[in-house]
């Protein structure tokens, strides 16, 4: 096998070389190279330049030449920075009840809601969960998603959360997609816990956190801050402790009522996700902070709620990443590109903002510095779309899918 691979000519390569981390973005900020080539060495990008330039420079004996005979657009591999794809069972009944006008409470009282998925996930074997995650991750890969964050949060006891995170760890070894695990033991107070919210959180801190470290199961802690889950007062000491143990923090914030985003800022979280209920006060606070706002249009579509105020957050100077929130309850679709496109039409986001939201800004949302842009030294994770302009990707609202997906320097999917 040759040491290098050279791919091209690529009609437009969107490198995001000098990413703007915050505020609005236009096409000019994307660093677009026309008639480009991409030189790969091992699992990384060696050089990005024009195809003719690279062709002149390479040693043909050391380089496999992959010539494209039609128009192609190259973008970084997509990153879905917020999902719950480790679960068992279906919540189709919740969905039908919700659409027929039943309230959150009515659904929960008749056996639906997050607790329903907890029950079904607890009765699954670890291996079954692993198989489910691999299947979903492999499907995402075909849509160009080369990195996926996966939360626990349907175990809700030390042992059951460990089962979920071990299942995710094992799945990570069996799929080409990189899985980034997150512990969401603070999803809701489990019905069978003998004690109050703070007693539960204390048990998680004392008994689960040390094992997360020793088994290297995750370095990320998430919490659902909401009246029906954990209040700001409950969660602050929990996240503070996690921070002191050097975990990265992320928060399900302001989904139905404001409050979580302030906790995210106070605990120096990497991201605050949801924000559908954020008011101008929260928007301004987030924009001033280093916390990245994660819009989850899939939850708005699944619940029939308003979208994250992404335009306002960007205009105030904040950063917006976009994720699918794929979960069996509020966001059962799990189609990142389609959802980003829909968010764009409702929130009036530029295609540049959408692309950054699922690449460079999504990498920042996971605190990953080795991906999300196409520059020398980064992982060779990228998608080729058979079209002549990158606007086409968003125009087709998710129906134009990659013709080739490359992960760590290898072609892993082709259609
Ligand atoms: O991100 N908001 C809380 N948790 C999930 C929903 C999980 C579920 O309904 O199973 C969310 O939307
Ligand atoms: Fe979520």
Question: Strands, helices and their partners?
Answer:
Blueprint lengths: L3 E11 L17 E10 L2 E7 H7 L5 E5 L5 E4 L1 E3 L11 H8 L4 H6 L4 H9 L3 H17 L2 E7 L6 H17 L3 E9 L10 H18 L5 E5 L7 H13 L3 E6 L6 H7 L4 E4 L5 H9 L3 E4 L1 H7 L6 H6 L4 E3 L13 H12 L3 H7 L2 H6 L16 E4 L5 H5 L8 E4 L2 E5 L1
Parallel strand pairs: 1-4, 1-5, 6-7, 7-8, 8-9, 9-10, 10-11, 11-12, 12-13
Antiparallel strand pairs: 1-2, 2-3, 5-14, 14-15, 15-16
Helix pairs in contact: 5-6, 6-7, 7-8
Bound molecules: N-(iminomethyl)-L-glutamic acid and fe (iii) ion (FE).
Q: Give the beta-strand count.
A: 16
Small ligands present: N-(iminomethyl)-L-glutamic acid, fe (iii) ion
- Given the structure, what is the number of helices? 16
Strand content: 15-25%
Helix fraction, binned, reads 25-40%
